[in-house]
C-alpha cells in the first residue's frame, strides 16, 4: 500500500536549536503515522544540507522557492522570523501547498489580511500556529465554563510575564526588541494567550490599552553591547468581553519571582484560576483550579489523566502535536478544526486595536 502520510517541508529548521527543533520536530515525530518530514530550506544550501544530514532527510533544497515548488512536498511549515512570513507564505500558497505558519502570521494586520485573502483564493489548508487553543487544559476549561461551573462570568483578570522584553537579552533574540519586526510582547505571549482566552470566554468587547517602557535600551549580554529598545515592557489592557464581563490584563517584561501566569475567571456561581510558569500559554503546562457553591478553597480541575495518554509529555510539544492533528484532519476530511488564516486575522485585529489605543495615550 502506498505511503499516505503528508509530506512536510520546513523553511527554517536546525536540528538542535530554536523553536522548530524543540517543538515542531518532536511533535511530528510523535505523529509519524500521519506525517513525514522530507525536506528543508534554510538561509543557505550548506545550512539545509547540515540539517538534512543530521535528520536523515532526503531533500536539502537550495532555497525556499525550490522547496515550495517541489512535487515531493504537500505541506510547507514556515518557522522563520516574522518579517519573512509574507514572502515565504505567499510563495507556498502560490505553489498550491498547504501551509502551517508560526504566529504572528504577518508583520502587522495588513500582511495578515493579504495572506488570508490569498489562502482563501487558493483553497488550501492554511494554519496559523496559535497552539494554546489546542491545549488539553484550554479545551477542558472551555467546557467547564460552557457547562456553567462559574455561572455567569462577571470578570476575568490576566497577569503574565513575557520572559523577554526587560533590560537584557542575547544577540539571537535582539530582533524581539525592535518594533519594526512585529515580534514583541503584545504579538507573541499576549496574543497567544488571548487566542486561548477567546475560546474560553468568547469575543472581546471594547478595549483600552497603555504601553509603558521602563527600559529604553537593552544590554546584549553575549556581545556586551547596549542597543535601543523600541517595544513596550509593560502592557495594560482594560475593557469588557462581548458578554459584558469586565476584563483586566497586565503583561510585564522579564520574569517574576511570583506567579508568571495568573488568569482568573470569576462568576456568579464559582471561580476558576489558571496558573503557569511563564506568560506564554501556548508553551507551558497549565494548572487549572476552581471552586463553586459552598466550597471555600480552590481544588484541582485538570483534564482526566486518560486525556493525556498517547500525547507527548512536554506541554510545548503536546500542544503543537495537537495542532498538527487538527491540521491533518482538515487536509484529509475537509474539516475546519485548526486555527486558519482568517482566525489569525481576527487575532491580529485585536492586537491592532490594543496598539492603536496605546498610541493615543502616548504623550
TrEMBL record:
Keyword vocabulary terms for this entry: Oxidoreductase
Record-linked Pfam families: Gal80p_C-like (PF22685), GFO_IDH_MocA (PF01408)
Gene3D superfamilies on file: Dihydrodipicolinate Reductase, domain 2, NAD(P)-binding Rossmann-like Domain
SUPFAM superfamilies attached to this UniProt entry: Glyceraldehyde-3-phosphate dehydrogenase-like, C-terminal domain, NAD(P)-binding Rossmann-fold domains
Domain Gal80p-like C-terminal: 138-276
Domain of life, source organism: Bacteria
One Gene Ontology MF term: 1,5-anhydro-D-fructose reductase (1,5-anhydro-D-mannitol-forming) activity
Ranges for domain Gfo/Idh/MocA-like oxidoreductase N-terminal: 6-127
Catalytic class of the enzyme: oxidoreductase
Entry EC number(s): 1.1.1.292
PANTHER family per UniProt: CONSERVED EXPRESSED OXIDOREDUCTASE (EUROFUNG), GALACTOSE_LACTOSE METABOLISM REGULATORY PROTEIN GAL80
Name of the protein in question: 1,5-anhydro-D-fructose reductase
